[in-house]
Design a protein that fits this description.
With 220 residues, the chain is of the alpha+beta class. It contains nine helices and seven strands. The two termini are 17 Å apart.
């Protein structure tokens, strides 16, 4: 079965079937996965790791072959930010998408050229399994205290309040008090918004952009 046949099969899958495959295969999320979208946000190509995400239903082509995620909120945010990324001169964009209860995925979008056309190179990384964000950058910008900063690092790493309390050896009530203060200083409503800000600032400072090699399997 070729890539197009697989895409067509997944696009006909029921939402419940896609959700079932996604929930079972969460830890198969591969940070080496690469997905290429054209200027209309249609899925064009993948590498082998990206194809695995399609095969297990974590991401799937939808109407018009547009990439979609299992969570409706993720779809809306991704479509908005991907369109902005293609319209901007800044070559890289980063955001955090919800991927289920207490799980988020970091999405990096790189605007580049392939075959003479602008494309968007999309990479995904599971925040809950590795630390991606340097929370100190946002912490300094928003004036977080030394007590608040480690709590915020936990939030940035998608760790739940109970786990933060165990790690820092403080009560859950203390964690929640810090979170209320942190969210007020950052003017956000909760963890996902705070994470998106922290990731964006971290990406902006690090600015490590790796342009794809046209000779790699990404474009083959």
């Amino acid at each position: 079965m070729n890539v197009i046949d697989r895409m067509d099969m997944l696009s006909r899958s029921s939402p419940s079937a896609v959700a079932q495959r996604w929930s079972v295969a969460w830890f198969e999320l591969d940070p080496q996965a690469r997905l290429v979208l054209d200027d209309a946000l249609r899925l064009q190509r993948t590498n082998q790791a990206g194809q695995r995400l399609l095969d297990v239903g974590m991401v799937a082509p939808h109407i018009g072959n547009r990439l979609r995620f299992s969570e409706p909120a993720s779809n809306r945010l991704f479509q908005q930010q991907a369109a902005l990324a293609l319209s901007r001169t800044d070559p890289v964009a980063a955001l955090i998408l919800p991927f289920g209860v207490a799980r988020w995925v970091a999405v990096t979008m790189l605007k580049t050229i392939a075959d003479g056309s602008w494309v968007l190179l999309v990479t995904l990384d599971d925040i809950s399994s590795r630390t991606l964000i340097d929370a100190s950058i946002a912490g300094a910008m928003f004036g977080l205290t030394p007590s608040e900063l480690p709590v915020f690092q936990g939030v940035a790493d998608a760790v739940c309040p109970k786990e933060i309390s165990r790690t820092l050896n403080i009560s859950v009530n203390t964690v929640r008090a810090h979170l209320r203060s942190i969210y007020a200083k950052m003017n956000v409503n909760g963890a996902p918004q705070a994470q998106r800000i922290a990731l964006s600032l971290s990406m902006h400072v690090q600015r490590r952009v790796n342009y794809p090699d046209p000779s790699s399997d990404l474009f083959n």
